Structures are given as C-alpha cells and as structure tokens.
Amino acid sequence: MKLCSIASGSSGNCIYVGSDTTSVLIDAGISGKRIEEGLHTIGLTGQDIDAVFITHEHSDHIKGLGVLARKRGIPIYATRETYEAVLRGASVGKIPEGLFHEICPDRSVEMGDLIIEPFSISHDAANPVGYRVNHGKQSMAVATDLGVYGTYTVNHLKNLDVLLLEANHDIHMLEVGTYPYYLKQRILGERGHLSNEMAGQLLCEVLHDNMKQIVLGHLSRENNYPALAYETVCAEVTMGDNPYKSGDFHISVAKRDSVGELIEI
C-alpha cells in the first residue's frame, strides 16, 4: 500500500493512495498539469488513476478536477451535496456526463482491491468528508479541514498504518496576523481548521504501537511554518496523556508546492 502527497497546503491539495493494482487521488486541488507531473515522479500517469475522491468543494481541493475529468475521463466520487456545489462553481468548467458517483459518509466503496471509507468532517462546506483507505489489514487515512473532532473522528482514525493529518495554523500567528476578523473566526471555529496544538492532541488519541508514519498537511501559508507545525505537534505528543514520545514515530510535514515522499508499507 502506498501514499504520496502530490501537494498539501492551504493553496492546493492532492494526495495519491494506492496498491500495486489500484490507484486513486484524494482531491485534485492543483492544476491538471501539476497533478500529471506529480504522478510522473512516482512512476504513474493520469491514465493509471482509477478514481478521484473529493473531500469537499473548496477550490484548493478541486482546481484540477475538470481537466482530469475531460482529459482522462476519470470517475469522480463525492457526496451529492459536494458534487452539486462543485457544479455551481465556475472553476472546474464542464464535467462529462456519467463520471459522477455518489458516496455517503460511513458507507464503504470498493475500488479494485481498496476499500474506501468516507467519514464526516466538521468544515464549512456542503457535506464534507475525510477518507480512510483499507487494503487487506493495512490502512491509511487523509483527515484535513477539521474544525473540531470528537469520538466519531477518533474511531475512524484508530489502528492506522499511515495518517495524513491537518496541522493548519499556529493560533498566535493567526490571531496577530493580517487576516480580517471574520476570517480568523472562521478558521478558529468549529467548521474551520485544526491548529497545530489540536493536531497533536488528536494524534495522542490515535497513536498505537504499529503506526508507521504520520504526515502533517494542509498548512496555512500565512499562519504556519513547517518547522513550527512539526515542533508543536511533537511537543503535544511527548507531553500528552499517552504512553508515547514523538520520537517513537516517523513524523514528517507534507510539502506545499512539490511532491513528498512515496510512503510504502
């Protein structure tokens, strides 16, 4: 099983997840050209992608969706509310008929030898989801754009091998930064984004002996730094109410504008 961040940040998100025989993208929030170039670096092309699973309709998650759909005819999986919101926007252009497949939170989708499990997330979008992807006894998840989390979220992120988790902002940087008040409140609200501290606290609830790698993603360009996200999350894990220290795990930060490490388990 494999995972690779092609891009992850507030300016665009696209994550590859696959096995030896099945390949999917979670989001297509960068240009179609960048997606193709990113896939090429890990030995794939758009022709190898079996489906695109969309988390929600914001532009940093769908920017390249229309190009992929028109050029490659790749099936699109999303909640109905998300897809309708995508079509109402002007950013993706026309999507060919027959490519959309409706998903529902907590209802699994079989895609080749992968089982994709959508789960609801708290974000200011139509009906947003995160994704857990299972391959036999192996599992990976992508959980970004979380305003808050609770037992439901934790349960979907337990017993993972690999987790890509949002660490969007440093609270102090956001509070003293140049964003207008309403935008600061949106980001800090229950339908906004996870701070570095909250990401570390969530990690404390899902870490286990056999977790192989954690990737911190969806960092804000204006209100975070990779080193700050890493150090804050590591401190929360080490000082948190759990039996682990951050050094017990491979924790990395996804790159905003370039392809990250291809993780294989």
TrEMBL record:
Q: Where is the Metallo-beta-lactamase domain?
A: 11-193
| SMART domains for the chain | Lactamase_B
Pfam families this protein is in? Lactamase_B_2
Q: This protein's superkingdom?
A: Bacteria
- Record's InterPro entries? Metallo-B-lactamas, RibonucZ/Hydroxyglut_hydro, WalJ/YycJ-like
The record's section on Gene3D superfamilies has: Ribonuclease Z/Hydroxyacylglutathione hydrolase-like
Query: What's the name of the protein?
Result: MBL fold metallo-hydrolase
Native source species = Candidatus Scatomonas pullistercoris
